[in-house]
Design goal:
Length: 299
Amino acid sequence: MFVSVALAIFPGCDTGRFTASQSIGLITRGAAAIQEHWDPVLVGDAMPGSILQLEGLYATLPEDDRVGLELLRAYVSYAYGWLEPEAEEAEARGDLDAQEETMRRARLMYLRARNIGMHHIRLRDAGFDAAVSGDHDAFVRYLESRYRTAEDVPFLLWTGYAWGSAISVATDDPELVLDLPKVRAMVERAVELDPSYFEHGGLMFLGALASSVPESLGGDPAQGRILFERALAGTNRSFFQIQLQFARTYAVTTGDRALFIALLREIIDGGDPRADVRLANRLARRRAIRLLQRVDELF
């Protein structure tokens, strides 16, 4: 609250920037601590306020990578962890208007996150816009030549993740869907540089992409399974979002009912293997329970 008041009193002045900059470390440490929380409902209720506070901070420090990354991740986390499940619940009870509205909100949040990521990439790389809007093979070569260290991974991965997530909830937007090869290229480069970043999240994302999109857009379920298995091995099967995505995409696409049930049961019965991903695992468990109830509908 103090941060919000300070930013309102000192918009755009040095004192406001000083106050904001002093708050960054507290916010980033607090974000890590939230990952250990046990109650997804409590955290979900608090997320909109946290996002707005970060937006206020970001308005004062729009070039700060730490604030930008936290805000980007907050939008993606809220859209994926709370809005998408809310839309699924609306669909299950037959409220298609609520489902459409919730997915519209999720899409806008993913696009806001993508735009934040693109802003920070541009700050580092003045040639990115020309490269991403050009020939695909040339863009891949550009990423390989320009992005060469682990420091490049966070914005490559999270921007691609947000962009791809926007596409996944807006398949009726052909212009957005055509961006999918660019998204894949960015995440693939992040994985090449550091496959372990964010609980092997790049491998999980690419596994879901390969398992769920048409072959004409690069889909390959067999490759998707390999990517999921790599992510599971890298996390010692302790980050349950991987099992969830494996079930939702590969198992459903290939009609593997037994694998679908086994993966969801692994989440539901998996307990609390790691405190540092407790919240993500609790969110996965809630979604797994609902998905398992739909097994006869999906297979």
